[in-house]
Amino acid sequence: MVGGGVIQQILRRKLHSQSVVTPVRSWLSSKKAHEEAGSSGVRALALLGAGVTGLLSFSTVASADEAEHGLECPDYPWPHEGILSSYDHASIRRGHQVYQQVCASCHSMSLISYRDLVGVAYTEEEAKAMAAEIEVVDGPNDEGEMFTRPGKLSDRLPQPYANESAARFANGGAYPPDLSLITKARHNGQNYVFALLTGYRDPPAGISIREGLHYNPYFPGGAIAMPKMLNDEAVEYEDGVPATEAQMGKDVVSFLSWAAEPEMEERKLMGFKWIFLLSLALLQAAYYRRLRWSVLKSRKLVLDVVN
Amino acid sequence: MVADEEAVDQKKYLEESCKPKCVKPLLEYQACVKRIQDDDSGHKHCTGQYFDYWHCVDKCVGPKLFAKLK
Question: Does the keyword Hydrolase apply (chain A) (predicted)?
Fold first, then answer.
């Protein structure tokens, strides 16, 4: 939409500087072109005119797709954004609480295990206690039967539905996606998820959403199956932080960011270290290369013409 | 100890305070609403103006919101 407007502006300026384009085009259509030296220049202008028309019409068509792409989400200043910034682990802990109490009834996170949370959001004892609260199917035992047992650290986070069909059946045909990688699986994922969760609003005039769907301007198409889930005080945080909608949104997205990129902190440290070391190595290599080549580069060639 | 139960949602508060900055797109939206009020075809809508307004508000709220959150 914006790109189309920019293209239009550039083309308009171009048109103004070549103000003869439009009259030339109509002149062309009413008269045959000469066969003189000027005809190639005129033909070039005609081609330019055709190109301009094509570009202009393309840009206006593209701007009609706003709702289809969803409202562009703003960039929020995430605390873990910087080149050497770590996650806010208190936020991850709160975010996991939000996930567990608000989201886990519909969304699975089947790539995360309880042991992944140890040292990130919970102590080992806390994580073990959390795992023990769930029932896990295991087996077969010595008698060949499957049995249930309390969860262990090595178990994955529980899935709300047995399979995708069950999930769709329980949610009016819509599949609540697995959230393990969601911030990497959506364009501008962190900002998108936060904007989506906190962006439920009344639809614009003239838009009506059918029963069963809800309006969200950030969702492509505008009609999302998930209702607004983050409401003030929906969760009571252990650390006493007021659980407003925006706070829960920030915390849950911090948790989801960690879930999708648990290696981020180590990656940033490694990146910083190796980029620094390789820069030094580059300087050393450049010096050594120039040192060795200096012999050849400081040669003098004498052209001795004897004639 | 009386706990402060009335924690106001920071995002809503900032969106309200950013309204004055985005008066122009808001007025455009309201003008559009008025224009399509009498339309019964169901094809007219104000998504464009709505998006322009909320994009303006989002750009205003974005840099400020996290400073208010823990």
Answer: no
